[in-house]
Amino acid sequence: MHAWPASEVPALPGKGRDLKIHDTATQGTITLAPGPVARIYVCGITPYDATHIGHAATYNAFDLVQRVWLDTKRQVHYVQNVTDVDDPLLERAQRDGHDWTELAERETVLFREDMTALRMLPPQHYIGAVEAIPGIVPLVERLRDAGAAYDLDGDVYFSVESDPHFGGVSHLDAEAMRLLSAERGGDPERPGKKNPLDPMLWMAARPGEPSWDGGSLGRGRPGWHIECVAIALDHLGMGFDIQGGGSDLVFPHHEMGASHAQVLTGEFPMAKAYVHAGMVALHGEKMSKSRGNLVFVSALRRSGVDPAAIRLALLSHHYRADWEWTDAVLEDAVARLARWRAAVSRPDGLPADALVEEVRAALSADLDAPAALAAVDRWVELQLAGGGDDESAPGLVSRTVDALLGVAL
Fold first, then answer.
1. What is the 3-state secondary structure (H, E, C) of the chain?
2. Which of 106, 194, 210, 290 has the lowest CB atom count within 10 Å?
3. Parallel, antiparallel, or unpaired: how do β-strands 323-324 and 280-282 relate?
């Protein structure tokens, strides 16, 4: 599976700062100082509907991570999956009378278009669950052979008790885990499981559903969590720098994935930092496909909204915050974009070296995009009020906003 084209990231004078970021697992801020190559895995979409603002906010957060690392003169090895076979996808295809593979391909294409328009830097490896199956089957077999997995009526489950570190990502109690498992794709009430929280690694073939050769596992398809583990271990190995996604992935997805990987390798932790973006609401409720309260990026683009304004709307909220999308949020972003473009269109202006460092400092401090916007706003206000005579300043500001915030002026 291919990703989307990369927009050029301008080089800035000097060098950026190491990233300090909130780690869900330690429940505090840690400083990440990767080697020459920083490694990040971000969980991708299940392509049964178009990209909504909640998706865009999540991928915007991890795009900022990449930009901070690139500014430190590191390379970035970024991996993202596509869950192109899963119950929600199959259910939507059946409901609407579509072929599930065509639905997945159509929505993945639209996702790529949205990411390109928003200037999100693409992953080096963009891997679908289906294409990862040959690498998933051996991992499930290894877990089973090691006694960390068991058979239940042909399905294979992971035993959470096989990982002494289980619970170390989410820090939830058993009852909270059980409730979230039931809400987010698990089956804690299924009779015969050793532990209600045990997640499925391999689902035996069901009538009328797609299945693949699973070797000694029999025909079937992979569970959700082992998919990401197989892809991450194959392309990044253990101990990569960031495991990222929305806050709704903390449990069970990232908790279970960490346990799978740690039992498979005997190493801890799977990732140095577990980083999660907040949820975006509409009309008082979290945007979700089940509720249908969605604002689609593609619909905004079709209506004539500049993608740079959409990106500024996302950047106006801290990535870890839960916030609400409103018309006013977008209107403010459109107005801000117009002011910024007017300011950098002047032939000269106020010196901007200090602004570059302000933006760097803000983003290195747990991706504080609102503080970065405020710094640019201050320069823009003075520039529009009279400015200065530095002919290089407008260009430097434009390159800074592009390189670090992903907004093309």
1. CCCCCCCCCCCCCCCCCCEEEEECCCCEEEEECCCCEEEEEECCCCCCCCCEHHHHHHHHHHHHHHHHHHHCCCEEEEEEEECCCCHHHHHHHHHHCCCHHHHHHHHHHHHHHHHHHCCCCCCCEEEEHHHHHHHHHHHHHHHHHCCCEEEECCEEEECHHHCCCCCCCCCCCHHHHHHHHHHCCCCCCCCCCCCCCCCEEEEECCCCCCCECCHHHCCEEECHHHHHHHHHHHHCCCCEEEEEEEHHHHHHHHHHHHHHHHHHHCCCCCEEEEEEECCEEECCEECCCCCCCCCEHHHHHHCCCCHHHHHHHHHCCCCCCCEECCHHHHHHHHHHHHHHHHHHCCCCECCCHHHHHHHHHHHHECCCHHHHHHHHHHHHHHHHHCCCCECCHHHHHHHHHHHHHCCCC
2. 290
3. parallel
pLDDT tens digits, 366-404:
999 999 999 999 999 999 998 789 999 999 999 999 999
Which residues is 245 bridged to in the sheet? Answer: 276
How confident is residue 15, by pLDDT bands cut at 50, 70 and 90?
very high
Residue appearing with tokens 């992903």: 406
Question: Tokens 């794709």 identify what position?
Answer: 185
CB proximity list for 383: less than 8 A, separation 6 or greater = 343, 346, 349, 350, 393, 394
- Determine whether 194 is exposed, middle or buried from the number of CB atoms within 10 Å of its CB (0-12, 13-18, 19+): middle
Closest CA to 177 of 82, 127, 252: 252
Tokens of 175: 């009852």
Q: What would the DSSP string read from start to end of 126-139?
A: EEEHHHHHHHHHHH
The whole-number average pLDDT for the span 197-206 is: 98
Give the pTM.
0.96
Using a 10 angstrom Cβ sphere, with 0-12 exposed, 13-18 middle and 19 or more buried, the burial of residue 236 is: buried
